[in-house]
């Protein structure tokens, strides 16, 4: 194989320069190991940095992290500016990573680009930040013909906001995810008529604020408990049939909506082909890797963060989690001896779909424990299964059933809005937890 | 208009339900301000794109923009009509002639609304 640059060794290679990758690369470059700054390589397949943020021209980003209401490109700009100031980050656009090869000594990344050709690069640590992609019509097995005019909401967003093309004039949107609702507003502003937003669930699956400012503000009809049952059209979409999901057999519950475009906002899939090929242990619930509280996967030195790990609804959390991952990756790269630690599992109980991280590292209970920190701060991100009213988060030690953390009572928790808790584990608690914590909402 | 008692606040991603008849019950200042505005003069920040002349396939032929402040909801479509008619020109020589945060149009079409670039070109 004719490869070049094979001798390059980086401390950290970050795969993907969306919000997670940018934040991870900057954090890795900042966390100077002693006096030597770590050498970071950021690889992006697109021609620009920022990933999906570039097409998300709406505002609402950065409220947590910067206490400012920014648009997607503005939010990205903040990180891209910082990236360019860092001399110890090399960044490659237009480069596609083909393989991540875990090795005993130095991990390898195989990538290809016009500029650099096919290269095999070595890295002490790797951060996976490939993001996610959209579910398509194929995932839903929607009956009907196969005309032009069926797009995923994100594709429509790219066409409208970056390419300057209008996907259609009369639009039905299936799925009330955030991108779907945001496209309902965007296309309305650009002169299209959004005939309906349809969701099979009894509630919107995106953020409530998006329902208010994107759907309700423009009086767009919202059909909850409904789904698209048929797509009609020869060359172009002519109409879609929607029906009540609780009454699908009843022809009276069906109605035909004339339209020329159907947008699908029906969920996102973490893009984990590289992760799985590398043999990293996965979590079936998140469709991402299993990670510890440093965002390290089952393979030491390989980290994962952002939507490739679990699909988030707020970019602020992606950036702050990715910074932890980037920092941990740089520390791992600088290590000569691997610290011994025990890990405890986070088990999800009542009403909880999933929780990230799935493991928490605690210092090994050996002689060294006397010198280690006495408390440890832990952050868990999780989602509830259904909308719940007047509930609180409870974390218990599964061994003795003792409560470790009890959150404040919340009026409502929704599956569309990721919950986060931060709590401290003291030394005593850490010693008493043998295997796992139980996370419940009740 | 129906007499709505509950308004869902959109100031932050929490999306709290606010009782409009009891503003004192709203504990967050952004929320109270939002509800007060919503009852008297609902306003929104509008984001859209503007055509770019002379981008030469360098990148997108659109520039994302935002209004400098929230504008009355009723003016949103008027603003969209104005933004459709304008375009910005890039100077051929400089690589980055528009900076994120620049005011692209001041008082666009006499509407009193400023448009701000949200990306650099």
Please, could you describe this protein's structure?
The complex is a heterodimer of chains A (442) and B (121). Helices cover 21% and strands 36% of the residues of chain A. Chain A is α/β, with parallel strands linked by helices and 442 residues long. Chain A folds into three domains: 207 residues, FAD/NAD(P)-binding domain; 131 residues, 3-Layer(bba) Sandwich (FAD/NAD(P)-binding domain), CATH 3.50.50.60; 103 residues, no CATH class. In chain A, the strands form nine sheets. In chain A, strands 1, 2, 5, 6, 7, 8 and 21 form a seven-stranded mixed beta sheet that branches. In chain A, strands 10-17-11-12-13 form a five-stranded parallel beta sheet. In chain A, strand 19 and strand 20 form a beta hairpin. The longest helix of chain A has 20 residues. Chain A is globular. The termini of chain A are far apart. Chain B is of the alpha+beta class and 121 residues long. Chain B has two domains: 35 residues, no CATH class; 74 residues, Roll (CPE0013-like fold), CATH 3.10.530. In chain B, the strands form three sheets. In chain B, strands 7-4-5-9-8 form a five-stranded mixed beta sheet. The model of chain B has no long low-confidence stretch (mean pLDDT 83). Classes of the chains: A alpha/beta (442), B alpha+beta (121). Chains A and B meet through strand 4, helix 2, helix 4 and helix 6 of A and strand 4, strand 5 and helix 2 of B.
